[in-house]
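We both want to read discrete structure tokens more fluently, so let's practise on a single case. Once you have written the record down, we can walk along the chain together.
***
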Amino acid sequence: MDDHTIRPDVHHDPTPGLIPVPHGPATGDEALQLPFGVTPDPDHEKAIFSYLTHPDDIYTKDGIYWADLPLRQRIAFVNKVQNEEAKQELKTIGRMMKEDPLSPVSWYFRNAVLPGAGLGLEGYVLFSIGNIEPLFKATWPQCWGHNAPECSSNWVAAVTYLEIIGIMVGQLVVGVVGDWIGRRWGLIQDAAIMFVGLLMLTASWGLNLQGWVICYAWSLFFYGFGVGGEYPITATSSMEDPVSSGKLSTRNDRLHRGRKVTTAFLMQGWGQLINQALLIILLLIFHAGSGSPPYGKATVQWTFRLSFAIPAVGTLWLVYYRTYKMPHASRQLMAAKKKSNVTGYDYESLAMTTRHFGGRLLATAGGWFCNDVFFYGNKLFQAQFIAVISGGSSSVLTGWIWNLYNVIISLAGYYLASLLMDNRFYGRKMMQQVGFLMCFIMFVVPAFKLEYYTSPAGIKSFQAMYFLSSFFNQFGPNSVTFLVAGEVFPTPIRASAHGFSACLGKAGALLASVLYNYIDIQTKFYVVPWFGLAGMVLTWLFLPDTTGLDLKEQERRWNYIRAGKPEDYHGIAIHPMHLSLWERLRGVGKHYNPELDHKQKIEDMREEWASKERMRREKEVNGQNSHGDELEEDDFNDQVHHYFRTTTDQGMFVNDGSAGPSNHSRSRNNSSAHPFASGANPKDAVTNEKIRPESPSTTQSPYSTRPVSEKEQ
């Protein structure tokens, strides 16, 4: 037998850096024995910490970051990692199906449908407004028609305006609430508002048609407020949830964060599909199986009111689920606030974000603005295309069926975006640039030959461009803007930044809806394409590519910025690959240094370990650490714990009679990375000089003690 073979009946020296597992053969001694004050061998130190500092999905065996490799080696490494991950996922799906053929369906329901349920309801109702408007026009032309005598044209137009304004207000307000009170409260509040809004839409009435339109418009404003809040709250909670669960989920965060958020967002497309299909079914039920006009008033009343009442049932369930089944939605935010000793809204982080990440805010908000002009502009294609292809049919059902085809093609774009969002050779930035470019082409081509493309001779080409514009809008800026508007900003103001970006995006939709009322079709096609070109330029210049960069590393950089020492951070979050062109031109990446960063990471972890060790001992002294009263978990294995015990001044942990290192068992899965994450008093903190007798780092860690201003308190 090979001398290196592990035998279950013999103790062996542990392999440096090996992560213990709760199963398998015994591996021998629990930790490396080092006398205090003796500096460990650097190579051995790297081996101990390699699983924390150099995870194998982004670093080679030699410790080289994948983006630092020559192009050919980079391609080989990335393909190897992604292929292995794909094989592992397929094996997992196979095992799941072997145990229970329906288990992948239940997994998808838990990880995509439930997180995106609010956005699904949003897509259902908001796009229903545009879908049922032709039915209203066909049934009540005296109110919804051109120069209608019974209703004010301003109030009819206000149906669209108030809907969009309600969304904008909700995006701003709930974004701030999500960062101030917490993600969980924002989730519950949004679901409750949407439920009440659906009841208002279902029961909207008036003494005359004008009164009904006014009631209908304000009901949409109220519902829109809840819908607007879904954007920042769903995005931030979806991307932060896995980050709070340890190193394995951090790996998943790097490899699958984009897919996780996008699969929640694409529920918006399913909402559109279900709404359009249900409207078709309801119209056929109440109109004796026919979709042709004229439509009876009772038919229209039953059709549109039931289309709002049915999702109200699902929204009520969503209120229950978020209230009782999502108790930890705010965990990551609360941890970030503890690090900064902030209890309310973190105004200082907001100010620092605008100062350090202003270019990113321009990219996310400006890109979303340009996209929503395009997203609304797709309706131009729809109206013109359907008018030509249907031969001027007056049937509402004809338009609905063609819209159903469009939604199905859009869903294909959503799903392809979720599959490639985390691909390091395509990813967020490239996807958004290509999407904007293709939308620009699909609009600018017919703009200068509109008469030809809307004639029978050119209608097939027009049809292709119509569907392609829908596809690339989803497989591009519509999916990417929702994701990056949250992930490129720090946790304390993530929801606020996302809400602001989404709000400015809806301003683009508002601009389009107002502008299109005052210009003709040809002029519209002259105006719209250039927003795609502008969006592509904004993306190229100001948007960083965060594909493959986990949120924890971005938070680690933020801790240095928050401490007033951004130049002391040397990690991969400022690698040129993960910075925008604007940031590179400003010299943000000039401090990138892998060797210094490795030393910093160990010292940052030492600060974290020291704080938790001190807090644990204080609880033991006070009798608070018994009978399951557990401390926060961490990512450290036994070797890391012992390394810190034998290279840290143990006298600094003597507190109220507790002395010496404890041998109590510890949990290993905490995601926090700040010495005060457990609530330690800054006055009792161990300074860098005291806690590390021979610190290899040349830079002070931002995790060390610093004064706390009255504003932060």
In short: The mean pLDDT is 81. The first helix runs from residue 42 to 53. The two ends are 63 Å apart (CA to CA).
